[in-house]
Each structure stands twice: as structure tokens, then as C-alpha cells.
């Protein structure tokens, strides 16, 4: 049994939660723009984000993660998706777990219970970052404008995820479907990236999905 102080960090008493792009009022933009946009953006807001640290070379650690989450521990530059949850490799001993809103406490508890005796860290970082989903036939072109990382299909297949420079800042790019990509963004840069994405996608047409 773990002795770590694990507690509910998400308000449960009726307080209004606001996403990093709340002020942009993306909901009011749904359905506007071109009929056949090249890029569609969806803010996957208020999800649970947890960083997990441990020994990736330890088979028992990997087995414990699988027991807790039902997902295999991904290797370098990989992201594993199961339903609405995902587990992404960030470094030799670090992973990012994203779960549906409200499920982060349960995920942390399961991880700690399954990994008792291992040297681990599970940290809730939900308040510091968010997730944007980009879909459409012109997303790759938009990414080519924004990052020097090679996003050609031969170098960036579905299931790959990297942290890289993007629009003179830094974020994580994840290729989750043929024409679907995700950006893991820091909350403090959300305004900047929202403005950047509007400008970079202007020639292709940008649609907002609710």
C-alpha cells in the first residue's frame, strides 16, 4: 500500500472550470468558416494530464503500468491510445498519461497501487497544459510552416510523438490518425498558439469543432 498523499485536485463543489482558451470563445466559432476547410481544430479541454516516472527498463514496472492502465508502456517517440486515454513516451524514464476529465485521481491511485515497491513519481499536471486536435487534409502543410521537424509520413508515421520547437516555442506533436494530429500545449502559451494557428491555417481554411 502506498504512503503517498494522493488527493482529489479537481474541484467537486460546483466551481466553474475554464480551459486555457476559454476567453477565445471557440464555441461561438463552431460551424463558421469555409464549407470544406483544410484544417479543423478541436480543443480537447479539461482532460486529466499526469506525468509518470519510473525505470522503463524494468519489466516489473512495465507490467505494473499495464495492470493499472491496460496499456503497454510505449518506447521512444511513441504514443499508445486506448479509448479516450493515451500514454506517451517523453524520455527514458518519463511518460505522459492523458485520461478523460475526472479520471485522473483514479488513474493515479491505480498506478501507485500497482507499482508499490518501485521508485516512481506520479504528478498531476492537468492545470498546466492542454490538448489541441488538428484534423484535415492540410494539417501536415500547417505543421511544415510551424516546425523544422520532419513531418513527412516516412519520418512521422501514425503513433509517433515528439517534443520539438513549434512557432519559435516548444510543444509536443502527436500523430494519432492519418489526417489527425494533436498538440500538447502549455497553458501559458495557449493564446500565442491560438493566434499562430489561425494565421498559419488562413490559406487552407480553418474550422472549429465543438
Structure explained in plain terms:
The protein is an alpha+beta fold and 210 residues long. The chain has one domain: Gyrase A, domain 2 (2-Layer Sandwich). It has 4 helices and 11 strands. The strands form 2 sheets. The protein has a 6-stranded mixed beta sheet with strand order 8-9-10-7-1-11, with helices on one face. It has a 5-stranded antiparallel beta sheet with strand order 3-4-5-2-6, covered by helices on one side. Helix 1 (59-69) packs antiparallel against helix 2 (104-114). The longest helix has 11 residues, at 59-69. The protein is globular. The termini are far apart. The mean pLDDT is 91.
Topology:
Elements: E1 39-44, E2 48-53, H1 59-69, E3 79-82, E4 85-91, E5 94-99, H2 104-114, E6 121-124, E7 129-135, H3 139-146, E8 161-166, E9 169-177, E10 180-186, H4 190-200, E11 206-208
Parallel strand pairs: 1-11
Antiparallel strand pairs: 1-7, 2-5, 2-6, 3-4, 4-5, 7-10, 8-9, 9-10
Helix pairs in contact: 1-2
Which descriptors apply to this entry?
Gyrase A, domain 2, 210 residues, 20% helix, 6-stranded mixed beta sheet
What string gives the helices and strands in order?
EEHEEEHEEHEEEHE
Strand tally: 11
The number of domains is 1
What is the CATH T-level topology?
Gyrase A, domain 2
Radius of gyration: 18 Å
Question: Which structural class fits the helix and strand makeup?
Answer: alpha+beta
Sketch the major β-sheet.
6 strands, mixed
So, the CATH homologous superfamily? Answer: Probable tRNA modification gtpase trme, domain 1
Number of helices: 4
